[in-house]
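Progress note, sequence design subtask.
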């Protein structure tokens, strides 16, 4: 059985990267380092709140994980087809709550999944890497493609495909439907409500 797994949570022209940053320029090396960080995220048993010790331990890990993702790309691409409907203030508010929600959900959920999964990592071409993952206990398999963007500080994730479907495209479609039904303020309100609900279950971000 194949199923899509919440994992979070994100091509372009190649830029020269200094030799001292060789690891940051290698998609496979970057993906291995990203996976290792995900696996370090501590999470309490389901239904329990994280302890203060867990939150302190996660603070540095979350900060390190942030360096693997292109925040600008991940908070603008989901609303790019609908941007003309946003004021600048609304776009800024969306970016802040969406980024917080991605970190709140994707970091611990990805860590929990990867700690249990059997994984196989390979190249997917054009600054992309493919992760095949299997959870034997659930007879579940999924394929995740990380799409990286070269930059002066190394590679950053700009999109993630789950079983062939772009996460950013999925968000564009979902948010387009919500905007059509509830408007931009309605979309943002729903994201803020989701964030509040997740924080009640998981505790605030480290």
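Output:
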């Amino acid at each position: 059985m194949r199923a899509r797994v919440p994992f979070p949570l994100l091509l372009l022209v190649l830029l020269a990267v200094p030799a001292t940053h060789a690891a940051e320029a290698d998609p496979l090396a970057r993906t291995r380092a990203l996976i290792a960080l995900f696996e370090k995220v501590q999470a309490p048993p389901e239904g329990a709140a994280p302890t203060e010790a867990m939150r302190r331990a996660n603070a540095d890990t979350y900060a390190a994980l942030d360096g693997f993702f292109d925040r600008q790309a991940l908070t603008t691409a989901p609303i790019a087809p609908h941007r003309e409907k946003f004021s600048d203030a609304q776009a800024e508010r969306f970016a802040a709550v969406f980024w917080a929600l991605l970190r709140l959900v994707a970091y611990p959920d990805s860590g929990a999944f990867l700690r249990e999964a059997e994984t196989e990592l390979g190249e997917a071409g054009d600054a992309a890497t493919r992760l095949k993952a299997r959870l034997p206990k659930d007879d579940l398999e999924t394929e995740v493609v990380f799409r990286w963007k070269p930059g002066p500080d190394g590679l950053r994730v700009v999109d993630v495909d789950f079983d062939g479907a772009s996460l950013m495209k999925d968000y564009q479609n979902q948010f387009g439907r919500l905007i059509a039904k509830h408007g931009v303020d309605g979309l943002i309100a729903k994201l803020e409500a989701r964030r509040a609900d997740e924080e009640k279950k998981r505790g605030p971000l480290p």
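Residues 1-22 have pLDDT under 50 and may be disordered. Work on this subtask will continue into the next period as scheduled.
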